[in-house]
Amino acid sequence: QVRLVESGGGLVQPGGSLRLSCAASGFAFSNWGMDWYRQPPGKEREFVASINQSGGVTTYADSVKGRFTISRDSAKDTVYLQMNSLKAEDTAVYYCRAWGFNSWGQGTQVTVSS
């Protein structure tokens, strides 16, 4: 059974940084790419970033390019999202997802506010 547990969210001021983690279990993590998505208040869930199985290929939404970095540690079955230069519009619940699996974790809340 696929299990994804996101953590690391919180309240941060504009311009600040956060590092999100997603611990995966129940599948062969190293064989699958991973995505980060987010759902802003009152809006649809949207793509943020993806990383392939080896970690050698990453893709970002235009809105976060140059500010966010996705990475993975296959020894820990964990994917990360380093978020820098945060803006109010980054406020959302952040979720991770494994390619090929229709499972979501509980998400982690990120609030960017002064």
Which of globular, elongated, flat, extended, rod-shaped describes the shape?
globular
Helix content: under 10%
The number of E-state strands comes to: 10
What would you report as the Rg, rounded to the nearest angstrom? Answer: 13 Å
On the 0 to 100 scale, the average pLDDT is 96
Query: Whole-Å distance between the termini?
Result: 40 Å
Strand sequence of the main sheet, in spatial order?
Answer: 2-10-9-4-5-6
Give the DSSP E fraction (strand runs of 2 or more residues): over 45%
What pattern of helices and strands is seen along the backbone?
EEEEEEEEEE
Main sheet characteristics: 6 strands, mixed
Walkthrough of the structure:
The protein is mostly beta strands and 114 residues long. It is 0% helix and 48% strand. The protein is built from no helices and ten strands. The chain has strands at 3-7, 10-12, 18-25, 34-39, 46-51, 58-60, 68-73, 78-83, 92-98, 108-112. The strands form two sheets. It has a six-stranded mixed β-sheet with strand order 2-10-9-4-5-6, with no helix packed on it. The protein has a four-stranded antiparallel β-sheet with strand order 1-3-8-7, with no helix packed on it. It starts with a strand and ends with a strand.
